[in-house]
Inverse folding.
């Protein structure tokens, strides 16, 4: 005897049923007849003999066409009525022609991509195969020709692309924002782009790309740029940074003030530092500012009450608390806004605009996850050229294609080339695009080879390059990862008080950490003295006195001119070179009640 199936509603066991398959079919049939709400999903799991009914909120559902006996329930009459406006989307649901499935119910469904692929086993059909994909993924043309991992990479970088961030970008005061100067419509588009009207706010440019190596400048993921194209505005953008400050009020009636600090201010930075400020302590619109320039002059009251002078007068010594430009963010003052904060205090926002011309190290990516940084910007006269005199904007390494299997990138190049010659946008929607053959015919019609290959000549020697080079037009995006915002170096600078090691982070003028793994590489090379240099000399070298008898750090009393051990007060003390971090460890061990002892011997 077959055991009864468990029935769950929203994860709670509510009873048992002898015929779960029949129950599932009946419930689904009632839902299609509008006797159950459309948000209900029913799934029978044969392996565990359980029926799951879900009616709770928060489930992601998607619409699918119902298939019965291998035939779609959507007929030509329905399509005609929809086009004429006699039928609505809601009507299709009410008639049970289309239904919403969640992830649970989809497990038991067999979904066909289109009517040609329908069989008796199929339970549903896609309204359009593009519905499988998310909004962002479906904006990648020829997606089905790419490896899944690279499609995810490409989708992830849509969010990092520079473009038009908002129509009212000039009024907004975001902390950081980017604006591409010359965004273009995509020559190869998808249906999703039309639906979300991406072309009204584009975020890419169409690059003429040739796939070829170039003197090793595009090894690994690097790309080579044409300097002439960069000078004509390729990839040029603006970076906006907003600085803000407020006149805070403190207990006792004291408050901050926007002003040019005078010489008596504690922490005065010098006359030149404040030279660009207007009389009200704020920078003027259009002023050029570089890092560490003061843009908002501000003074704060002293932290503690001042002592009364000999004349019985208290002269308030104010503190310097101005706002300066962040490291590596040179630019021009774009906007100065004076307003009030929530608490009614004076608030200033200053928007600084920096012009970002593509430089070596800046990141670019196509929609197929073919990302790379600029490896070289080559003078236009040295770039390879076609017999027609076309010089590519960008050279892509051939090795980046086979291993990543982004065939969609190659087809987009072909489609972009055909679209530019025909003066039209090409539809590259996944599963529903123009065939490669028709793209080849378009190219042939205009006198080009149907396979996209062309003859190239070396720009330096003028000699013909052996073999044909695949070239076309592909939509590239400039990402917000720019080398000028990431570059970091230091020779000398501030150290942490506790460990006496260099500070961490670019903004704090920090050093680059030479960590455990880097140290191991030096050990592997046998470079012991370099190890000493990196971990001691360049970091937190200190000479401490060590007691010969006790092995603890001794005391060097500068006032009494006495060097002694605080434990035995009799043993001889010797200077020992060590890392201050090590000395700190010894102190922390002592605090834990552990007695660390150093055995010192003569240097051999």
């Amino acid at each position: 005897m077959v055991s009864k199936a468990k029935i769950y509603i929203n994860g709670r066991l509510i009873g048992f049923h002898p015929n779960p398959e029949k129950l599932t079919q009946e419930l689904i049939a009632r839902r299609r007849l509008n006797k159950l709400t459309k948000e209900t999903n029913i799934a029978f799991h044969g392996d565990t003999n359980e029926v799951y009914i879900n009616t709770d909120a928060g489930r992601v559902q998607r619409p699918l066409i119902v298939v019965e006996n291998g035939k779609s329930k959507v007929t030509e009459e329905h399509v005609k009525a929809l086009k004429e406006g006699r039928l609505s989307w809601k009507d299709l649901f009410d008639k049970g022609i289309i239904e919403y499935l969640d992830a649970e119910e989809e497990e038991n469904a067999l979904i066909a991509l289109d009517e040609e692929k329908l069989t008796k086993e199929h339970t549903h059909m896609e309204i359009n195969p593009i519905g499988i994909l998310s909004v962002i993924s479906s904006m990648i043309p020829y997606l089905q020709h790419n490896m899944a991992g690279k499609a995810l990479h490409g989708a992830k970088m849509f969010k990092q692309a520079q473009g038009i961030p908002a129509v009212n970008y000039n009024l907004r005061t975001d902390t950081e924002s980017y604006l591409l100067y010359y965004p273009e419509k995509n020559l190869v588009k998808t249906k999703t782009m039309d639906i979300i009207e991406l072309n009204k706010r584009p975020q890419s440019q169409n690059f003429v790309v040739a796939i070829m190596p170039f003197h090793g400048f595009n090894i690994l993921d690097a790309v080579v740029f044409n300097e002439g194209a960069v000078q004509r505005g390729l990839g040029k953008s603006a970076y906006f940074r907003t600085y803000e400050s407020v006149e805070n009020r403190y207990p006792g009636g004291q408050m901050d003030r926007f002003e040019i600090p005078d010489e008596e201010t504690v922490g005065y930075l010098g006359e030149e530092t404040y030279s660009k400020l207007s009389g009200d302590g704020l920078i003027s619109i259009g002023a050029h500012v570089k890092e560490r320039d003061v843009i908002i002059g501000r003074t704060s009251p002293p932290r503690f009450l001042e002592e009364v002078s000999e004349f019985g007068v208290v002269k308030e010594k104010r503190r310097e608390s101005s706002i300066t430009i962040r490291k590596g963010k040179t630019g021009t003052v774009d906007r100065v806004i004076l307003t009030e904060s929530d608490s009614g205090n004076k608030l200033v926002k200053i928007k600084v605009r920096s012009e970002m011309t593509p430089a070596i190290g800046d990141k670019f990516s196509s929609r197929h996850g073919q990302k790379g940084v600029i490896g070289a910007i080559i003078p236009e006269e040295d770039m390879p050229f076609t017999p027609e005199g076309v010089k590519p904007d960008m050279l892509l390494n051939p090795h980046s294609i086979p291993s990543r299997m982004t065939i969609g990138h190659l087809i987009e190049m072909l489609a972009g080339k055909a679209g530019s010659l025909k003066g039209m946008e090409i539809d590259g929607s996944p599963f529903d695009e123009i065939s490669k053959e028709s793209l080849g015919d378009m190219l042939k019609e205009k006198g080009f080879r149907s396979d996209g290959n062309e003859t190239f000549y070396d720009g330096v020697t003028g000699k013909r390059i052996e073999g044909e080079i695949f070239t076309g037009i592909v939509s590239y995006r400039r990402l917000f990862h720019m080398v000028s915002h990431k570059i970091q170096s230091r020779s000398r600078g501030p150290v942490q008080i506790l460990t006496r090691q260099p500070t961490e982070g670019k903004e704090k003028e920090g050093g680059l950490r030479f960590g455990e793994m880097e140290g191991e590489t030096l050990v592997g090379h046998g470079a012991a003295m370099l190890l000493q240099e990196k971990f001691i000399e360049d970091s937190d070298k200190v000479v401490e006195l060590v007691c010969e008898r006790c092995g603890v750090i001794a005391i060097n009393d500068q006032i009494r001119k006495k060097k002694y051990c605080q434990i035995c007060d009799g043993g001889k003390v010797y200077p020992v070179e060590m890392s201050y971090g090590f000395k700190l460890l010894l102190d922390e061990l002592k605090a834990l009640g552990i007695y660390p002892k150093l055995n010192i011997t003569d240097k051999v």
Summary: The mean pLDDT is 89. The chain is about 20% helix and 25% strand. The longest strand covers residues 346-356. Residues 557 and 563 are 6 Å apart (CA to CA).
